[in-house]
Design a protein that fits this description.
Blueprint (H helix, E strand, L loop, with lengths): L7 H13 L1 E4 L5 H16 L4 E2 L8 H7 L3 E4 L7 H21 L5 E9 L5 E4 L9 E8 L13 E4 L6 E3 L6 E5 L4 E4 L6 E9 L6
Antiparallel strand pairs: 1-9, 2-3, 3-4, 4-11, 5-10, 6-9, 6-11, 7-8, 7-10
The structure holds N-oxalylglycine and manganese (II) ion.
The site of manganese (II) ion has 3 residues, from loops.
């Protein structure tokens, strides 16, 4: 049976999204789940499966480096380990709730791990591509180890017209959800390795 109870945590996220186009949740995942994902990320990083993030393919490497310096690993859910499956189960539950209560029509998702080495950043951008508006919600969950100190940098800055910039520090277990097509944002230079799992809830892409 589908669970039709109101979920206060999800309701808070939905309210936030409606009111301010973003939401910050510090306890979406259990600390144990966060640690599990962190260790999965680090295992994959050691196996050198990570790739330097690319932007489309019309840019050369130097230009890409001037825009973003993180390393990413796309997670193939068919190959996901138990720790990752637990993550996707929660995402699935949340997505079903969104579809049922907000008619968002989310039918697809894509997630990657990201590692920002010291000195890297991701300049101000929007999470959508030309000719593809399928990304509806961006989700970032931070997998940093200890308490992240402000002097480590690496804050996510969300820009809203006519309002103060919103600074979000990548605290362990914190999840940020925001409207992919609306909010421009950037990752400030990091002074300490910065880990996350990042993804998008998407409508089905219509191929015209
Ligand atoms: C991205 C992004 C934000 C963050 O990967 O597109 O903007 O805080 N990430 O890691
Ligand atoms: Mn982004």
């Amino acid at each position: 049976m589908e669970d039709l109870q109101l979920n206060p945590q999800y309701e808070k996220i939905i309210d936030d999204l409606l009111n301010q186009q973003y939401s910050i949740v510090d306890d979406f995942f259990l600390m144990k789940e966060v640690e599990n994902l962190r260790s999965s990320l680090l295992d994959k990083y050691d196996e050198e499966d990570f790739k330097k993030a690319a932007i489309g393919n019309q840019f050369n490497e130097l230009i890409v480096k001037a825009i973003r310096g993180d390393f990413i690993f796309w997670i193939d859910e068919k190959l996901a380990n138990a720790k990752e499956l637990a993550f996707f189960e929660k995402i699935e539950h949340f997505t079903n709730y969104l579809n049922r209560t907000c008619f968002l029509g989310i039918q697809e998702r894509e997630f990657h791990y990201a590692l920002y080495p010291e000195g890297t950043f991701y300049k101000r951008h929007l999470d959508t591509f030309q000719n593809d508006d399928s990304r509806k919600l961006s989700l970032v969950c931070y997998l940093n180890d200890e308490d992240w100190l402000p002097e480590y940098g690496g804050e996510l800055v969300i820009y809203k017209d006519g309002e103060d910039d919103i600074k979000v520090y990548p605290l362990k277990g914190r999840m940020v959800v925001f409207e992919s097509q609306i909010l421009e944002h950037e990752v400030k230079p990091v002074k300490q390795e910065r880990l996350s799992i990042t993804g998008w809830l998407k409508t089905r892409k219509i191929n015209l």
